[in-house]
Design a protein that fits this description.
140 residues; alpha+beta; Pnp Oxidase, Chain A; 8-stranded antiparallel beta sheet; 4 helices; globular; coenzyme F420 binding; F420-binding_dom_put; oxidoreductase
Amino acid sequence: MDEELLALLAGHKLGVLVTLKRDGRPQLSNVNYTYDSARRLIRISVTADRAKTRNLLRDPRASFHVRSEDGWAWTVAEGDAELTPVAADPQDETVEELIDVFRAIQGEHPDWDEYRAAMVADRRLVVRLGVQHAYGQPQR
């Protein structure tokens, strides 16, 4: 895989997740994300009741688009998504991973107990998208 294309993923926190609707058409969602270059893994916090989540439960194939600030460089990463269980308890493994995702995107939260409770109340989970293929236009 072209490391220059993957470097664009590592340099940003906002991208577009593309899932497939029941009729096969794409459904696009702007999302905050974190990218682990060592594991080639994109992680996104989502709620259980959103279209993107339902789409991925039905069909795990997904694409992820990110672009440079000027729009000339871009990467599309493709892979099959894995979804964690929905957060059910403030101390469960899903909430721990949601904390990791939050920290990677925004840093420390002012009240982790409040955050943990909100993750359960919101019925959040983590989408893990392993990058199996990438294409695009690298930075010059």
